[in-house]
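Exercise 7.
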Amino acid sequence: MFCKYAAGGHSDNVYGHRGGVAYEAAVYRHLLQPSEISTPTLYGTYTDISTGDRWLVLEYLENNLRLSMATETAAPMSLAARWIGQFHRVSEERLSHVSMPFLIRYNAEYYLGWVRRTLQF
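Solution. The predicted structure, written as C-alpha cells, is:
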C-alpha cells in the first residue's frame, strides 16, 4: 500500500493548486475510478480524530521509478502523455453528463498567478 498524509489537517493548498487529501480522495472516487482507465486502486481514507492527520491509502505500484531518477525520460513522458490524453477524453465525455461541483476549475487568473510568481522568483 502507498499512503499519503496531511499532518494536523493541513490541506497544503498551494495558491489554490492543491485541495489536500480529502479532495484527492474525492477525485479518485468520483472521477478516476469510474473512468475505467488505468489508475492505482483507492483503498480508502483515514482521519485520526486526535491529531486531525488525514491519510489516503492507495495501491502500491511495484517497480515504479520517479521520473527525476530515470536515465531516459522520452518513453515514460510519452506514456504519461498518452495516459493524460485518455483521461481527458474519457472525463470530458463523462463530465458532459455528470455534475461534479467539487472539482477545482482553473481559470486564466489562476494561470497568470503562476506566471507572475515565476517571474518574481
